Amino acid sequence: MRAILIPALALVLASPVVFAAQIYKWVDSQGVTHFDAQPPVGQSTTEIDSVKPVAPPAPVPAKPANGTQSGISQHSIDQKVQSQVQEQEAKMAEFCDTARNNLAQLQSNPRVRQEIGGELRRLTEEERQGKITLTQKQIAENCQ
Length: 144
Prior knowledge:
Number of strands: 5
Strand content: 5-15%
Distance between the termini: 86 Å
Number of helices: 3
Low-confidence stretches: none
Number of domains: 2
Largest sheet: 3 strands, antiparallel
Strand order of the largest sheet: 2-1-3
Radius of gyration: 38 Å
Helix content: 40-55%
């Protein structure tokens, strides 16, 4: 009984591999795609792996029913983004100009005053050097 059961079990387990034949895909002269176990003579074919599962196709994004409205809204969005970018660039340019001006004043004048709590106070040399280092770092990171 065991002599029959073990080979039968091995045959059942190996059967998907045995029955998986090679499949060929080709397109004929009229543009029709064919699939067959035998490749045609004189045609270029593509072998299809029937053991490996086929990946599902990528989802196609849905197009809006009215294409003109999406074009107009996309155009207005593009303009809004461009204006925001221009505003940010203008603010950054203003920041860089101010930072460079402050750096020049800090480097050229050892008697810099700063308003703290409504009253003017002269910076110590250590404070001035710290502000010079901080301003140089900000210019290096943010300005070109």
